[in-house]
Write a structure and sequence with these properties.
- It is a single chain.
- This protein has about 775 residues and is an all-alpha fold.
- The chain contains 25 helices and four strands.
- The strands form two sheets. A two-stranded antiparallel sheet has the order 1-2. A two-stranded antiparallel ribbon has the order 3-4.
- A hairpin with a 2-residue loop joins strand 3 and strand 4.
- Helix 4 packs across helix 6, helix 5 runs antiparallel to helix 6 and helix 13 crosses helix 15.
């Protein structure tokens, strides 16, 4: 664009130099181009899918909107629903601690009260009565909370459809004018669209007799408590334009990534095939559809704020920019320059550790002692040590401490819970498949008082499908599985391969990748994006009354362009960094997500899977610390992300981006699983398989480190060459620009013309 503009000005100078007639076809074309640049009307927005521009089954179709789709999957879409509610209705959700009290601590206290009544009331009738009443109260409270949440989500969808319908009506009214009015853009008085009086909207709808594209029944079908059916939203044939694909998977096949392909296969298998309906679970698909629509109609500069706290970036990021500009190396100063969300996360961690410390020294709970508390603290210390080495020593100016906290928390909470859910689903499918194979093949077993034992020869055994199913459903089915594993090792090794590469490696690497893209931080915004965000200040959070359970107040407007730090207008010149610096920040951010994920996984392995003595817990922690497979795979992922985002490599879609990390992670897990199987299949754990596990783990870690070092070095050279190329092009363009400006000034002085000549020359110079 810059080169084309310079060429245009050069042609303009030549035209002015050669002739007096200033009405050449090129000049008319230039006038049209300038007018188009300054007044670029939006294309008419088409929303054929019952009021939306994308289908409810279009999740992960567009890789650019994968962040919204992933946020809808995480925590049942709570964060995305809060954001949509805030953008549309101007209502801020309850605080984190209030939600914890209402949805966690209070129901848990009711459950503990039922347990206390069951253990302390001696009379059997009274015991059963009180326990049943308390549990019934808990059930009613839970169902009521779910119904209230469903009502809120349905209200959000209804309000969004109303705003979109009014926008469509305005576009129809303005389609013959030069500009189309967009209700979602900021008017001259900087009032956001969600502060318009709802009565004005209702009166406009009634005046124009506008009908919504969805009924309340359809809206309620989207946001069910558990599951629901939503009729296909593909428009009927008489409403479709010729030559346009209106299918739910309307997308560019060349841009489709692995997630889009998997989601399309899943939805085609489960939805819309038999009865023309889409199965909805907890409103996830509906929330993703609403989020995609909001990203299209609301300018990005009005969405530059944090989740949960809704603090605008401009309230805390100028402090971070100042630290980067002054090269401040004080850790305390970096810790102070954080957002409200990061501050709340750090305080929550400190308070949680304090509560656990009190529990460990209390005699009421004997299973969690001070020694266990020490192991818990050591787990966090190990994670923080890795972050200190990766971030503070090498990349403290490439990635801010605020971003580090958010990425770690996202990996610890969101990536882990999402991965555990999908791992459970895949594990259930794999176990059912293995059970079917066991029923088909059968195993020679004998029944005795201790269960079912494998026998070398056929004596007494259960045969037939019914007999095998009866054994598989028994309490001692674990011994039956061991017998099947011994008789059919190849089948079980294939099962282990699917478990290692699909259930563990693929799901966990996807979880870490989506944990990274779910966090939008100003560290990775361009200078232009920050300047646009600075022109619009979101409502000040201190003037917002939080949403209560009974009373909801919209956000009050405060049109102030200053930030809460009290600093002058921020200078975003230091946001323009080298590509190597941005790439280092991407690597540090993805490693932070992986460290948070690994920290939570270590806690699960130590305190849930390994409920043994402190010595064994320390051994587990030490072994998992010696082989940091999660941070290593995240670092390998970052090479592909930098290749795609910074080098603009079109061949680096999600599948190819994740393949090296999935291959390393899956091979690491598969070898350990196979060696463990071969060792246990002999009836005893010998020293040789254990040593082979350690050796193979070390080799895989060394191979991963070598791959990352080599590839990252090559990538740094490519990024450095790109930086030099951009600097050289900028120098050349500045020289050409100065030469053209001097020519224009000389012509202007020599001819001494006024009016149109000088105006057009000034417009050309202003455009440049």
């Amino acid at each position: 664009s810059f080169i084309d503009n310079i060429a245009a000005v050069k042609m303009r100078v030549e035209a002015l130099s050669s002739r007096d007639d200033l009405t050449t076809p090129y000049q008319q074309h230039l006038d049209t181009a300038l007018t188009t640049n300054h007044n670029n009307p939006r294309r008419r927005c088409k929303r054929p899918y019952k009021g939306f521009s994308t289908s409810i089954a279009s999740s992960f179709v567009d890789p650019k909107q994968a962040r919204v789709d992933c946020c809808a999957l995480t925590c049942c879409g709570i964060l995305l629903s809060d954001q949509a509610r805030y953008l549309i209705m101007g209502i801020q959700p309850p605080t984190l601690w209030k939600r914890m009290v209402v949805h966690v601590f209070f129901p848990l206290s009711i459950f503990l009260l039922a347990g206390y009544a069951a253990l302390t009331i001696p009379d059997s009738y009274t015991n059963n009565l009180m326990t049943s009443l308390v549990l019934a109260l808990l059930f009613i409270y839970t169902v009521g909370a779910c119904l209230r949440g469903r009502q809120k989500r349905a209200g959000i969808r209804l309000q969004l459809l109303r705003r979109l319908r009014e926008l469509h009506q305005h576009q129809q009214d303005k389609e013959n004018e030069d500009e189309e009015e967009d209700l979602f853009s900021c008017p001259s008085d900087e009032r956001s669209f969600h502060h318009r009086d709802d009565r004005t909207i209702h009166s406009a709808l009634n005046r124009r007799s506008l009908t919504l594209p969805q009924t309340m029944s359809q809206i309620n079908c989207v946001h069910q408590i558990c599951c629901g059916c939503y009729k296909s939203d593909v428009p009927p044939l008489d409403e479709q334009e010729e030559g346009v694909d209106y299918g739910p998977y309307n997308h560019d096949v060349e841009q489709e990534d692995m997630c889009g392909c998997l989601w399309r296969v899943l939805t085609r298998a489960c939805c819309g095939t038999c009865c023309g309906c889409y199965i909805q679970s907890c409103g996830i698909c509906g929330l993703a559809q609403e989020g995609r629509e909001l990203e299209k109609v609301i300018p990005a500069k009005r969405r530059r704020f944090d989740y949960i706290t809704f603090q605008p970036f401009m309230e805390y990021y100028p402090l971070i920019l100042n630290l980067r500009a002054t090269k401040n190396t004080s850790m305390l100063t970096h810790i102070k320059a954080i957002s409200t969300l990061s501050h709340d996360l750090i305080v929550t961690l400190a308070m949680t550790l304090g509560v656990l410390l009190l529990i460990s020294v209390s005699p009421m709970y004997g299973r969690f002692r001070p020694a266990n508390m020490a192991v818990l603290v050591a787990t966090f210390v190990q994670a923080f040590t890795v972050l200190y080495l990766v971030h503070w020593i090498y990349h403290k100016f490439d990635l801010s401490f605020d971003a580090l906290v958010k990425y770690f928390a996202c990996g610890f909470f969101l990536s882990t819970t999402t991965s555990i859910f999908f791992e459970t689903v895949i594990q259930t499918v794999l176990q059912l498949s293995l059970s079917v194979l066991m029923l088909l093949f059968g195993v020679n077993v004998e029944e005795n008082e201790g269960g079912y034992n494998r026998i070398p020869t056929v004596t007494t055994y259960r045969s037939g499908f019914a007999g095998q199913f009866r054994i598989l459903a028994s309490e001692n089915s674990g011994q039956y599985v061991e017998s099947f594993v011994h008789d059919h090792p190849i089948v079980y090794i294939i099962y282990l391969g699917l478990t290692a590469f699909v259930m563990a490696a693929l799901v966990e690497e996807l979880g870490k990748y989506f944990g990274y893209i779910m966090v939008e931080h100003p560290d990775f915004l361009s200078r232009k994006e920050l300047e646009d965000a600075a022109t619009y200040t979101s409502p000040i959070l201190s003037t917002v009354s939080s949403d209560s359970e009974t009373d909801e107040q919209p956000v009050e407007e405060e049109a102030s362009h200053s930030n809460s730090t009290g600093m002058a207008a921020p200078d975003f010149s230091h946001q323009t960094r080298s590509l190597n610096s941005i790439g280092s920040g991407i690597t540090a951010g993805m490693i932070s997500v992986a460290v948070g994920f690994a920290c939570c996984e270590n806690l699960i392995y130590i305190f849930i899977y390994n409920q043994s003595r402190v010595k064994e817990q320390l051994i587990v922690l030490m072994m998992r610390s010696l082989f940091p497979i999660h941070p290593l795979c995240a670092a390998i992922q970052s090479i592909g992300v930098c290749r795609r985002d910074l080098e603009k490599g079109t061949d680096r879609r999600l599948g190819r981006l994740l393949f090296p990390a999935v291959l390393l992670h899956g091979s690491y897990d598969f070898v350990i699983m196979v060696l463990n199987y071969l060792s246990s299949n002999k009836g005893e754990y010998t020293l040789v398989p254990i040593m082979l596990c350690y050796v193979s783990s070390t080799l895989f870690v060394l191979a991963g480190i070598s791959f990352f070092v080599v590839e990252s070095a090559l990538q740094r050279e490519r990024l450095h060459a790109m930086d030099q190329h951009v600097d050289a092009d900028t120098t050349v363009m500045r020289g050409k620009f100065s030469s053209l400006i001097h020519q224009m000034l000389n012509i202007r002085q020599s001819r001494k013309k006024k009016g149109t000549d000088m105006e057009m020359i000034s417009r050309d110079a202003t455009l440049l």
